[in-house]
Design a protein that fits this description.
single chain; 2 domains; elongated; binds zinc ion
């Protein structure tokens, strides 16, 4: 039995400390990402409440009769890290990955709901931070799985709108953000407002600054990178690069 008596919410700072002090005989080699599908974001307008988490534990333990569940739930409230099952024991979340991976359930139905904007984006940014932290803890060769990578499932989990390329980008960008905490001084050159659909040399410069593929076209990957950047810099995360975002980028 590895359900925690009470699911526990962490800040990033507290979780980092907690993970550093973890003692365990089970050594996972990867992380498997899931979406909750049901409940969807729309069904949980304020994320998971303590009562929701009690109900989830009841559901897995008594309704399904499982000995364990996923290790984490992630939502869009604050840092969104909710520890659900003990990290030192195998969970139950994906047949082929239970024995090797920690399992993360991201709130939302990403067959239908949008992971690239608003609450969906916040959930995935939180999940990417958590995945990165766990993978760093695992060390060299840590694997990132999606539930649908499991040949023993026919599920689309974590949702058809979520690609692994994009999740890896979110994970990698977090590392970049940590190492570039001091933006250069603004040069006060006026820049055009850029958004989805924009193209040209300014977009190339933007992509270069964000560390995404430079093709001069402002598509979904650039949009996601901008939203992530704005979120990290506590700007309005609308994916539109205006004066304040350019300034934060150092231009
Ligand atoms: Zn799943």
């Amino acid at each position: 039995m590895s359900f925690l008596p009470t699911a526990r919410r962490f800040t990033r700072e507290d979780f980092t400390t907690y993970l550093a002090g973890l003692e365990s005989n089970w050594h996972p080699s990867g992380v498997t990402m899931h979406h909750t599908a049901s409940p969807s974001l729309a069904q949980r307008p304020n994320g998971f409440s303590p009562q929701h988490l009690i109900n989830l534990k009841d559901f897995y333990q008594h309704e399904k009769g499982w000995s364990s569940g996923p290790h984490f739930f992630v939502d869009d409230q604050g840092d969104g890290i909710i520890l659900f099952c003990a990290l030192g024991a195998k969970g139950v979340h994906a047949v082929s990955f239970n024995s090797t991976d920690w399992g993360i359930e991201v709130l939302g139905d990403y067959d239908e709901e949008d992971p690239l904007t608003g609450r969906g984006m916040k959930c995935w940014q939180n999940a990417a931070w958590l995945a990165r932290t766990l993978m760093t803890h695992i060390g060299e060769g840590a694997k990132l799985h999606f539930h649908r990578d499991d040949p023993k499932t026919s599920k689309t989990c974590p949702g058809t709108k979520v690609t692994k390329e994009w999740v890896r980008l979110l994970i990698d960008m977090g590392e970049t953000m940590h190492t570039h905490s001091d933006p250069p001084m603004p040069a006060h050159i006026p820049r055009p407002v850029l958004q989805k659909g924009s193209s040209g040399p300014d977009v190339r410069e933007l992509q270069n600054l964000l560390g995404v593929k430079v093709d001069g076209n402002f598509g979904p990957i650039t949009h996601a990178a901008v939203v992530e950047f704005q979120f990290r810099h506590k700007l309005l995360a609308d994916g539109i690069v205006g004066r304040k975002t350019w300034a934060a980028l150092g231009l």
